[in-house]
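**User:**
Make up any protein.

**Assistant:**
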Amino acid sequence: MEETNKKNKNRGLLVPILCIITVSSVVFSALQTVYILKLASGSVGNYAYMRGEPEEETASTREDTEPEVSPLANPEFSLEHAASVTDPNKPTLSTVEIVNSVSPATISVYVMAQMSNGSTTPAFTGSGFFVSADGYIVTNRHVVEDVIEGSGYSILIVVPGYDVPIEAEVVGSDIQTDIAVLKAQEQDEPYSYVTLGDSDTLQVGELVVAIGNPLGKLSGTVTVGVVSALERTVNNNGYTMDLIQTDASINSGNSGGPLINSFGEVIGVTNAKISTAEGLGFAIPISDVDEIIQSIINYGYVANRPYLGVVVGQIASDEYYGAVAGVYVSEVEEGSPAQAAGLRPGDIILSMDGVEIIYSDDIIDVRDQHVPGDEITVVVSRDGHEVELNLVIGDSNDAEQ
């Protein structure tokens, strides 16, 4: 009997508790619904500032709500200005000013193939820029390679401000640096031309602008980025080049166009991109090729550049079992100074002109300290014996004839 009374008492307490829980749930649901409606309408939450006029704040309210300003913050900071090198003697230009200055001198290059019916069609496209008022143009050699190496091709250029394409011819080219110079037909008025800068003063992070003809259809396209890296080593037709890397968009058809610094000066010739990645474009530093361009304009070829005519390869001590580490001759060009000196494939080059050869770059360093006609001593290891040879430095133009 007593146990029954306890059960009845517990049931009596359970009913009010359930009622309280039910009422609380209803009230909470109602409040939540109202909040969601306010949130959706924008009267509260992250988007509340978008609706209506701001409420008038008291001093105490501002003190409570305004975040503390970091002592490291700089309200005057400009990313564009920070990404350019400031020279006290030259004012930096805005991107618009750079484009207005250089675009009139930037041209689109079309290599035209002769068809069987006598008409012509674009076979290859690229970009270029005038370096003189009388029509000398710098571009990449690979842009006009078909014209240089074969017949049945011609060149047309599209110049800003001219209604019809203009014919151009190849003055000369250099396969080692991928540079070519064209000459446009003379017009009644002088051509606009660029100012060349000093790529040796570039810094990583500096603002750069590229102008070109991507895809051969979008002439005058402007892209902006920074110098991502300097002296990126890239192999081009068997020759090593140290290039400027940039995240300014570079595409097929941009080849040969100008890469421009904050002062509106051309500091590079765009020539490559990595197609499997984004933001990886490359340009030839203008200071590495300005003498090449000058020589081509003066002579039609690169004059007085030292030439050896030997291809070498580096072998490390642990690369092959039993291999002797060193710089090996892998190929000797026919009729070259290296062949005349007696170099053979398989020779290990120990020294040149008294300089120990440890890396293949050491050979380039020695070569570039000489001029055609200089005679140097080359010591090689051949069949376990040291052999001393006399080599007369040649002219690179002789090798390209």
Remarks:
- DSSP finds nine helices and 20 strands in the chain.
- The longest helix spans residues 2-41.
